[in-house]
Amino acid sequence: MLAAVRSRLPATRPGLLPISIVVLAVVLALGFGWLVLLLAVLVPTVWAIYSRPQRGLLLLVALAPFNGLLLIAPFPSFVAGWHDSLILIVLGLTFVGPKEARAPVGRRAPGWVPAIVGLLVLGLLSAAIIGGIQALIGLKVSYFDVLVVISLWRCPFNSRERDHFVTILMVAALLTSLYGLWQQAVGHAYLASLGYQYNEVIRFSSGFRLRSFSSFNQPFPFAFYLMIAMLIGIPQVISEPNRLRNRLFALALPVIGLALVFTFVRAAWMGLAIGLGYLAFHRYKLLVYAIPLALVALLFLPTGTFTSAAFGSESLKARTASWSQRFRTITTHPFGTGLASTGAAAEKVAKLRRTDVALAYQPDNSYLKTVFELGVLGLWLMIMLLAATFLGARSSERRLGGRGRDLAAGTSAVILASAVASLVATYFEMFPMDLLFWCLVTTTATMSWEVSPSWEVWPPDPAATPDPAATAREASTAA
Q: Across-strand partners of 204?
């Protein structure tokens, strides 16, 4: 009878959970716990990015400010290429991911597309002429981050993701500022003991004042990142002062501003002043009242070595002297000397060729770098690109309301600040300045075309402009 009962029962199989536990125990026993942890992070992350490629771009923006920590982190060397790999993965997923995440086809391209296409064609011609490793590095440094434009145009941020984008900039600005101020407290000797190298990462201004570099590889990208975060975040604070996120960012502004001061990057100070001046006289009149406060704050700066480091003219004199010596290059090479012949790209080429890196000319000027490498035509296209992106952001600002308008206004200020900073720095050669520039201008260009009315905003944006397409549909239905 017992045998008959057993014959009627269904055959039992080991469940998935017990099998998983056994497999996990075996893997841990063999010493592959790091692989389990890596897969536990990568698998859900890859699935989330596949479901919505925009999340990959947000992840890229969130991790970019901390890329300099790889200089002292015990990671394998291949991890250094994470940002290039993530850009390529996101671009590929925009073609194979869910259709719901993509924008509708047939939209008019932004007005700045012809300028960037012209620069790309010019760069490809230059690369074909010079060839070899120099051409590859030149294309990588100058044009690789432009792939973000394609990804964002195919899968643009919705209103919630744009809000997350701004939040990421705010939070990262505060975290990196705290790290930068901590560096001032511990000093350069302790930073060198952590693994940071002198003259590469650890740098000093005149008067032997340490320049904070935070989680970046140099003080310059750190300063420019804080400049961008402030120009994007301040319009949000003024428009929605009662929102908790904006209140916290307003409280963090003195910390961020102090960290920016200790970078001793005057190009970022100048860019921030130009950007805030534009915002103050263009739309946010409240900022006008902050000008006297800023002037009073200058009176409380310490004198002596600090003021000489902050306002000394030695570096500017050295730059102008170097530029005057190189101006004849423009007449002898009106079509340029080729990609990666100057700047950080030239330094990378020198390292790969094992030649003297000191011979690589650093122009400290994005316009001169462009004219030296791509000639007068390249300079003209660069100026047209900056002008077109600024006018495009202004156009989006006029058509939008609420947070979209504030983001477009902040983007306009960032473009102006970037154009000014480029006069005394190779701004677009620094990571992640190029990445953030393309994210901002492309996001601003796509804001006028919401892909789906189901993309809600949280928290609600009380000043947002209604979707004109949805309004038209409702009117036709009522009729």
A: 210
8 Å CB contact between 216 and 177: no
Q: Which domain holds residue 191?
A: 53-74+90-103+162-300+307-328+383-450+458-464
State the Cα–Cα distance between residues 313 and 317, nearest whole angstrom: 6
Number of domains in the chain: 1
166 pLDDT band (50/70/90 cuts)? very high
38 pLDDT band, cuts 50/70/90, is: low
Contact 340, 138 (CB under 8 A): yes
Tell whether 369 is covered by a domain: no
Contact (CB, 8 A) for 90 and 60: yes
End-to-end CA distance of the chain: give it in Å, rounded: 77
State the Cα torsion 245-249-250-254 to the nearest 10°. Answer: 160
Dig out the tokens for 157 from the structure.
């941020």
Contacts of 116 (CB under 8 A, 6+ apart): 146, 149, 385
How far apart are the C-alpha atoms of 179 and 75, rounded to whole Å? Answer: 20
Residue 204, phi then psi, degrees to nearest 5: -130, 150
For 202, list phi and psi in degrees, rounded to 5. Answer: -80, 115
- Asked if residue 357 is part of any domain, the answer here is no
**Contact 224/433 with Cβ under 8 angstroms?**
yes
Cα→Cα distances 250→244, 255, 288, 446, Å: 10, 10, 16, 28
Q: What is the pLDDT of residues 414-456, one digit of tens each?
A: 999 999 999 988 899 899 999 999 999 999 999 865 533 333 4
Yes or no: say if 179 and 258 are a contact pair by the CB < 8 Å rule. no
Taking a C-beta distance cutoff of 8 angstroms, is the pair 190, 184 a contact? Answer: no
CA-closest candidate to residue 93, choices 141, 118, 126, 60: 60
Q: Between helices 343-353 and 132-143, what is the axis angle to 10°?
A: 150
- Does any domain span residue 337? no
Tell me the pLDDT tens digit for each residue of 103-146. Answer: 887 778 889 999 999 999 999 998 898 888 888 888 888 899 99
Res. 360 pLDDT band, cuts 50 70 90: confident
Candidates 220, 232, 223, 222; CA nearest to 439 is 232
Residue 157 forms part of a structural domain:
no
Q: What is the pLDDT of residue 457?
A: 45
